[in-house]
Amino acid sequence: MDTLGLLLHGFEVALTPINLMWALIGSILGTAIGILPGIGPALTIALLLPVTVSVGPVSAFIMFAGVLYGAMYGGSTTSILINTPGEAGSMMTALEGNKMARSGRGAAALATAAIGSFVAGTIATLLLTFAAPVVAELAFLLKPADFFALTILAFTSVAVVMGASRVRGFVSLFIGLALGVIGIDAMTGQPRMTFGVADLLDGVELTVVLVSVFAIGEILYVASRYAHAPDDIIAIKGKAFMTREDWRRSWKPWLRGTAIGFPIGTIPGGGSEIPTMLSYTLEKKLARHKDEFGKGAIEGVAGPEAANNASAAGVLVPLLTLGLPTSATAAILLAAFQNYGLQPGPFLFSSNPELIWGLIASLYIGNVMLLILNLPLVGIWVKLLRIPQPQLYAGILVFAMMGIWGVSGSVFDLAMMAALGVVSYAMRVYGFPIPPLLIGLILVPLAETQLRTALAAGQGKLSVLVETPISITFLLLSFLFLFLPVLLKRLKGSA
User: Fold this and answer.
1) Are the beta carbons of 146 and 470 closer than 8 angstroms?
2) 23 Cβ neighbours under 8 A, 6+ residues apart
3) Which helix (H) or strand (E) is 331 found in, with range?
4) Could you tell me if residue 294 is left (phi over 0), alpha (psi between -120 and 50 degrees) or otherwise beta?
5) In principle, which of 135, 240, 359, 470 could form an S-S bond with 146, CB 3.0–4.6 Å?
6) Which ranges constitute the DSSP H helices of 140-202?
7) Predicted confidence (pLDDT) per residue in 436-470, tens digit
8) Distances in Å between the alpha carbon of 188 and those of 183, 184, 185, 191, 192?
9) Would you say 14 and 361 are in contact if contact means Cβ atoms under 8 Å apart?
């Protein structure tokens, strides 16, 4: 079956009443958490993992996709109306969007953000539709040594790019690697790093770590920095609509933002922050009305919002085709696949096409739902900002504890959740990035398996790891990620 045929089959799956309901729930949840500052899609999906154990994988991932896209839409609302990004990818939107709102043009800012998100999301989903099968076919050519080199590239790039320093990035990565190897070694049957604790023989429960590190640690951190001063919410004047001049100034930034966001989303460590910053800088350089930047230029909202949404679709390409997470949210989605006993990669396209194509088709449907939810109903969403934050954080904390207890029923897991929550809170306080920990934890079993398989095939010779051009390329890129910034800095210093 060709790609269009598979996509039509995906629509048959996604348009069933039950899956439409999950897509709507995901879109509403995603918009809500995007609007609420401090609660991102990664935290929400981590919290939902224990709840969705009884839901089928197709429905669960359709809901997760709605959360992922919805957060990108919702994040712009808080950026524009209270100058506080709901999630990291909306940082640049706040610069111009809030100025527009303060000058009485909040409706136009919200409209260009929502329509730009729709345009970018749809184009990026189209690119995902046709790029993913090609990459998946190419992935069949990869040997164990290539996959091992690919995981090394993921480790180094995420540790170097994310976080304030490489040292902190690698410390976070090694914590994740250490957590990932706890338990009985499947090949030798020997316990590893269990310290005589019987509860650790089966390894660390992935859901416990994700909820602890992402939900508990994040909530503790956000709550500890809670300011009692109420947010100054700017009232929206008029309908969320754009004038002809606004359309003329927005459509090119939407397309440029999409062109920047999608490819960067596919790169390890790309995330949503880098493309939005690049898009803002580009729009500032290309704008005819440069003097408006800093005072409320619509291009500074349209471009970054499009880049933000396009990067979300880009993240799904390496995740679905190679099983490679390039951001914290993608790492949690990978953990969700593993919760269902599924491993994303080329084989998933042939073994479970209903899931893959149902998920991709749901992205188109979710985009339409989100445009309807975000444009006319923005006034309702804004009311979420009036929820007292202490009660909100306390509710999330209770929800997380109930989820872990429901999944494992283990006091040991609850104690581990508390301990890891405190550790992740300390990491945030001292500037240690969280994504390297998650990616180290989730990818270390794959890296170990591929390394052992490659060495077994090469009869123990390390040279087998650099025998193919693909593995050499990945290892070379890893080397560049590690040392190129240092070399450039030294060259710049000596110039």
Assistant:
1) yes
2) 14, 62, 63, 65, 66, 362, 365, 366, 369
3) helix 328-339
4) left
5) 470
6) 144-161, 166-180
7) 888 888 888 888 988 999 999 888 888 888 888 98
8) 12, 8, 6, 9, 10
9) yes
Weakest-pLDDT range from 39-48, 197-206, 227-236, 333-342: 227-236
Taking the C-alpha atoms of residue 319 and residue 330, their distance in angstroms, rounded to an integer, is 7
- Residue 306 tokens read as 């499009």
Phi, psi (deg, nearest 5) at residue 84: -130, 110
Q: How far is CA 456 from the centre of its chain?
A: 35
CA distance 124 to 360: 11
With residue 186 as reference, give the H or E element that holds it.
none
Dump pLDDT digits (tens) for 172-200.
Answer: 989 999 998 998 887 788 888 888 888 88
Q: Count the residues in the chain.
A: 495
CB 198 within 8 A of CB 182: no
- Asked if residue 52 lies in contact with residue 60, where contact means CB atoms within 8 angstroms, the answer is yes
Q: Are 178 and 495 in contact (CB under 8 A)?
A: no
**CB of 181 within 8 A of CB of 193?**
yes
CA 90 to chain CA mean position, Å:
13
The pLDDT of residue 238: 56
**Strand, helix or coil at 185?**
coil
Alpha helices in 83-143 (DSSP H): 91-102, 106-139
Identify the CA nearest to 303 among candidates 249, 257, 243: 257
Structure tokens at 162: 């994310």
DSSP assignment of 37-52: TT--HHHHHHHHTTGG
Here the tokens at position 410 are 């283990």
Helix, coil or strand: residue 296: coil
Give the contacts of 8 (CB within 8 A, at least 6 positions apart): none
pLDDT band (50, 70, 90) for residue 218: confident
List phi, psi (to 5°) of 37: -60, 140
Distances (CA, A) of 402 to 170, 260, 328: 32, 41, 23
CA 9 remoteness from chain centre: 26
- Residue of 16, 48, 8, 30 whose CA lies nearest to 370: 30
Residues 6 or more apart from 44 whose CB is under 8 A from it?
A: 29, 30, 33, 67, 71
pLDDT of residue 240: 56
pTM score over 0.90:
no
Average pLDDT over residues 233-254: 77
Answer yes or no: is pLDDT of 40 > 80.
no
Q: What per-residue string of b and e applies to 336-369 under the rule 16 or more CB within 10 Å gives b?
A: bbbbbebebbbebbeebeebbbbbbbbbbbbbeb
**The two three-digit tokens of residue 356, written as one number:** 């893959």
Query: In the predicted model, what is the mean pLDDT of residues 12-22?
Result: 91
Residue 260 and residue 282 in contact, taking contact as beta carbons nearer than 8 Å: yes
